Amino acid sequence: MTLDMNFVRAQFPAFAEPSLQGQAFFENAGGSYTSGFVIDRLERFYRARKVQPYGPYEASRLGGEEMDEARTRMAAILGVERDELSFGPSTTANTYVLAQAFRRFMKPGEAIVVTNQDHEANTGPWRRLAEEGIEIREWKIDPESGHLDPDDLEPLLDEKVRLVCFPHCSNVVGEVNPVTGITAMAHAAGAFVCVDGVSYAPHGFPDVGELGPDIYLFSAYKTFGPHQGVMVIRRGLGEALPNQGHYFNADTLYKRFTPAGPDHAQVAACAGMADYVDALAAHHGISGDAAAKGAGVHDLMRDHESALLQPLLDMLRGRNGVRVLGPEKAEGRAPTVALALQGPGAEAAEKLAAHGIMCGGGDFYANRALEAMGIDPQKGVLRISFTHYTTEAEMQQLMDALDQVL
């Protein structure tokens, strides 16, 4: 089974936008185009439901129902219980709130394992707990490949470790980490697990229940939705951590770690992400419950992306003055390709823009990973990132432009 690209692209108004014609979008790791389903729901909420939700009158009741629908349907796709899913203003903010909960949950002398492969949003808040007497242990990447070796985690685990934090995949290395195996190692040592899924979820929603971590975070604006952070906290941990919300909401799991009032319209619009998954599943003959449809769509996306990615990796391999971060094979990595060049990454991105290629250059908040691999964050990298709605023609446009710019 292959993706019907005409159907896929018809679901994204950006591809019909006159101002974007002739330009190929390769900065999806920073934020994806938005599905028409999401835009329609967001527009409807602002037009017809922009009142305080959960009240007795019609507009309020419908607004609350749409917010509940988003949580119910996305939780089902992710393979978790409805109240184990929370929405927040961003993944960065959600992680910060979680770190404050662990600050009160842990005792001085206990430890957290973090990596230097992470985006700063999933490592900085945990590292700052050292100020509270929490020991921070760093699980280091290989300086050449950027690989995060599970064998290197084993010596860091003992009875003091309460939490292990790592990315599903890095936003500059791109390699997909074996979440299930790493989670099993951490759980065997008595530690909880927090996975940053921001750079993975755009390539297919994972079955978090099957993967097994206690916390899984990603950003809806990178998964074709509105600007919200999506956070799964499994019940056992969520009920054990200190409540960070209003005291009278402490008995509601999905409110315990969202101290700020939710953006009602954007929460409701997240149901549009589930609409999109359902539409893709129906069009491609994928049946079953929400998790089964999500898994089928996930595999469709990943297969399409891998087929487009390998020719790009082959083209870049061995090119003078170009260092490709992460694996050389599409299998096992996301279509996020960071290139360390002789000059600044931002300069290369500017030159590519003249060829209709929209991508970026910089450190991408992965300073620790770049430094570990011997790359100056001030110089940064050129990052090319795409997702399932990218076409073969756009990949050819990219490779032709790279030929000229590099």
TrEMBL record:
Domain annotation Aminotransferase class V: ranges: 25-398
One Pfam match: Aminotran_5
A molecular-function term among this protein's GO annotations: transaminase activity
Keywords for the protein's UniProt record, in alphabetical order: Aminotransferase, Pyridoxal phosphate, Transferase
Protein name per the record: Aminotransferase class V-fold PLP-dependent enzyme
